Amino acid sequence: KKIFLALIVICTVSLLLHHGGHFTNMEAFRFGCSHQYPGSKPKHTNIVFLKTHKTASTTMQNILFRFAERNNLMVALPVQACGHQFCYPRSFSSHFVHLHTLRPNLITNHMRFNKTALQRLMPNDTLYITILREPASMFESLFTYYSRHCMSFRRVPNGSLEAFLAEPFRYYRPQEVESMYARNTLTFDLGGDKDHPSKDLAYAQNFVAEVEKVFSLVMISEYFDESLILLRHLLSWDLEDILYVKLNMRTESSKKRLSPGLPEKIRAWNSIDTYLYEYFNASFWLKLSDLGLDCVAKEVQLLRQVQEKLMRSCFGGKMPLPRPAAEIKNKDLRPWQPSDKVDIVGYDLPVNISHEAQEHCLKYIMPEISYTRILLHSQSLRHRRSYQNR
Fold this sequence. Notes:
CATH superfamily: P-loop containing nucleotide triphosphate hydrolases
Number of strands: 8
Signal peptide: 1-23
Distance between the termini: 60 Å
Subcellular location: Golgi apparatus membrane
Radius of gyration: 21 Å
Main location: Golgi
CATH class: Alpha Beta
InterPro entries: Gal-3-0_sulfotransfrase, P-loop_NTPase
Number of helices: 15
Strand content: 5-15%
Strand order of the largest sheet: 2-3-1-4-5
Oligomer: single chain
Keywords: Glycoprotein, Golgi apparatus, Membrane, Signal, Signal-anchor, Transferase, Transmembrane, Transmembrane helix
CATH topology: Rossmann fold
Structural class: alpha/beta
CATH architecture: 3-Layer(aba) Sandwich
Order of helices and strands: HEHEEHEHHHHHHEHEHHHEEHH
Number of domains: 1
């Protein structure tokens, strides 16, 4: 049986690569999860993705932007006064949505979650999705990324994470703008109280129960590909819909290594986030088990193989090397740099690939701010044409 499955995998991958990695259905996944056949259900298109901070959410947002464009869907985007986020850290309101993007199918730019406002805005069959990351690694990323923007971090001598965690209340001010980056950021993004006393376990339990009631899928950053397989099954999507290139990455030199004992201090300081993560990491593995771990592993294997084919086709037959922003010639492809202490790398397409490949690959590597601006422009044109026709 294993030999038979292996032959199917090899034949399927060969067929896909022969056709350039483009897909119109889910034939490629039949060998993995045969209980869900292509065409059995229409693709689900009404989605709220709560984009959390430093969790691979920019890569997920890019997947959703491209899905929306391929399927002619409307994406709710922020008004100009909000920038590329929905006036974060204010609680989400429909007033933050650009008029040309109303009656949306999807919403994915950063916001602070407000269930009531979103349920009024979105269709009744909307599915809610978010993503979490292990609190210790996430907090190191937040501390480094927002070192120039968050006053709680700026006060710390020499930008020392150890010093902050030794006496967090010496530097942390709960009411300051951008204090949400310094404590229980996931909890805050999900609409909870980041400063609720950590001893009150009942609050964390009730908060988790509320999140579980609203969100159909809570993805886990450390298992991003497995999360995409769960997403694909939840939404009845194809393989093409979940292909991606990693975005918004730091260089290794921009990362701080956590010294012994520091992860425990981070989890204690971010106790509600820790409770959230541990609960949903456990439920995540239950969902994978329900789908079938063998099935998921096979789909992940195929996803990665086709992904490599995609990247080689986009980058002249080679795997892409992320570049510093200053070296990227196309300004639309330069990622935002939070400070001179953090290097966020991006990509530039080689000049020797075909025009068709350029068109196909460009959106895979486009940073959030550029993609939001271009998507707003195209949807505004669509809105004006619709208005003129009426």
